[in-house]
Amino acid sequence: MIFNGIDFDTYFKNYPDANGYFGKYGGVYISDELKAAMAEITEAYFTICKSRKFIAELRRIRKEFQGRPTPISHLERLSGAIGNVQLYCKREDLNHSGAHKLNHCMGEALLAKYMGKKKIIAETGAGQHGVALATAAAYFGLECDIYMGSVDIKKQAPNVARMKILGANVVEVTDGLQTLKEAVDAAFAAYAREYKDCIYCIGSVLGPHPFPMMVRDFQSIVGIEAREQFLDMTGELPDIITACVGGGSNSAGFFYGFLNDPVKIYGVEPLGRGPKLGDHAASLTYGTEGVMHGFNSIMLKDENGEPAPVYSVASGLDYPSSGPEHAFLHDLGRVTYDTVSDEEAIRAFFALSRYEGIIPAVESSHAVAHAIRLAKQMKTGSILINLSGRGDKDMDYVIEKYGIPAKDADLL
What we know:
Blueprint lengths: L1 E2 L2 E2 L3 H4 L6 E2 L2 E2 L5 H16 L4 H15 L5 E3 L1 H7 L3 E6 L10 H13 L4 E6 L3 H13 L2 E7 H6 L1 H9 L3 E5 L6 H15 L3 E3 L10 H24 L5 E5 L4 H8 L7 E9 L10 H4 L1 E5 L2 E5 L24 H9 L3 E6 H15 L5 H16 L4 E6 L7 H8 L10
Parallel strand pairs: 6-16, 7-8, 7-10, 8-9, 11-12, 11-16, 12-15
Antiparallel strand pairs: 1-2, 3-4, 5-6, 13-14
């Protein structure tokens, strides 16, 4: 399929290019010393990760440890409550550790082991990436440091406990807004000190090359499985697919399987409390081109051109930029990026729980809310949602802040 001059038959061979660019987005904007470290990782990725031995080991891990493939569920009761559009979801909440994050964490940790590294470090917001990396570290016998903002530590107490039980060292970040952006800042600073003995396992399709490509490739299993499963289940492709977008790892992997198909693709950003700067984290919707954390993309900026403060009820989405490939697909128009507010996401959180017995992560609830909105506008068709994680981590916070709704009908 050719879309706006891009041949998606060969898309993944051409993007990113050799310098890590998706069009004008991506690249490597870091110190010369860290560029050498990134070059080492890039070389290892294109040699070790493409080897038969590595691929066979990763496939074994996915099957025997992660529990892949994860299924697709038909959301029959929720669909019926809305109308005639049929909703389905890819169940990444059933991936071991409760979210899609383990897909790239096991790949990154396996790469670290093959490279002879002793330690892996990372940032986390919602805690799912931290839990996944702590899980991978325990599996491979590696040391693990997880940087997490103080605000997110309070919001995501269950995941903090899980990381510590798994043996990770959770480093509290008290700078700035004490959320995901500051955690990334701190993790990058630590990596600059320790890069000879460790790998910084970036938690999304962010950062300097090769991480936007590498994380996407490890996450592509989600989209590859989903496409095959949906065809097997229904005999056709979905009309629409939708996934939440913060940094964009779950969506990049999900979209991978469908970019060359006649399927409408939506990425859903967090509108938070509203469109005022500081009240949301919808960078692709409201941002402009800029460089942060070693890559060029579309970002939210303050009056000085620096990364703006951001907010979302979903800790895993409150980042002031998005992955460079998302910025590229946004400019191409191949993916439509829309927004969902906190209130819509919370209603969807309870709707999926009540109608289907599935408690979603608040991050994933943004995609569920968007699918519900689309289903109300359509007469017929099918929508496939990437349910990127489960909501165990969010229950206490949601109940404390929003309470529990009395009537199911109020949720739709």
